[in-house]
Design goal:
It is built from 5 helices and 12 strands. By secondary structure, it is of the alpha+beta class. The strands form 3 sheets. Strands 7, 8, 9, 10, 11 and 12 form a 6-stranded antiparallel β-sheet that branches. The chain has a 4-stranded mixed β-sheet with strand order 1-4-6-5. The longest helix is centred in the first third of the chain and has 11 residues.
Length: about 200
């Protein structure tokens, strides 16, 4: 998994935060190992798989993606997997799909590049992630336009300006039944998605 970690660029290094994700299939890694290895993993954390996320994966994959023994992906080359920002797929399987290119092989271990991978942050004329933490994703973008972050929507997430007041803080829009989005005003916007659940405020 070291090659994947280096290729996806982990937050906290001198390099920019990752804009692409990896999908490590269950045939080569136990559940949650990619997260512990600090790899931006599209599978999330198995013990807390959101219903909307599981439903999205099922639709993208053509069948139930979450079972009692973890995440199961049968069609990793699908457009829906690429829409999650998945660029790299690690597996021991010999995958044959027109949207997958074998990028590296070490024994039975294979890494494929998803040729249909879309940017994790997209929609505006230009946009980039400047900070990527579990509870905060900061960005810079040029509006106007709808900015989409290919991360699951969940109550408690807010989006707003981190510099100036051009973008009032509010809950993000829910797009495609899963993703977070916000409509940007014209001009340069420096903002952030931040997780602030009400229960924390009560405490």
């Amino acid at each position: 998994l070291n090659w994947l970690r280096a290729s996806t660029v982990v937050s906290g290094t001198a390099a920019p935060p990752a804009s692409a994700r990896a999908l490590v299939l269950d045939d080569i890694a136990r559940p949650n190992k990619p997260m512990r290895a600090r790899i931006p993993h599209a599978g999330g954390y198995d013990a807390m798989m959101l219903f909307d996320y599981a439903a999205y994966l099922a639709a993208a994959d053509g069948g139930p993606a979450v079972t009692t023994v973890g995440l199961r992906i049968r069609n990793p080359g699908s457009p829906g997997i690429g829409a999650l920002g998945v660029r790299w797929i690690a597996t021991a399987r010999d995958l044959r799909h027109p949207m997958l290119r074998l990028a590296r092989q070490d024994g039975e271990f294979r890494i494929y590049e998803h040729l249909g991978a879309r940017p994790r942050l997209r929609g505006a004329a230009s946009a980039r992630i400047t900070r990527d933490d579990p509870e905060r994703v900061a960005f810079e973008a040029e509006g106007p336009g709808r900015l989409l972050l290919a991360d699951p929507w969940y109550p408690g997430w807010l989006v707003g300006s981190s510099v100036g007041a051009c973008l009032p803080t509010r809950p993000p829009l829910k797009v495609s039944g899963l993703f977070r989005a916000v409509d940007l005003p014209g001009g340069h916007v420096t903002g952030e998605f931040v997780y602030r659940p009400v229960v924390f405020l009560w405490g």
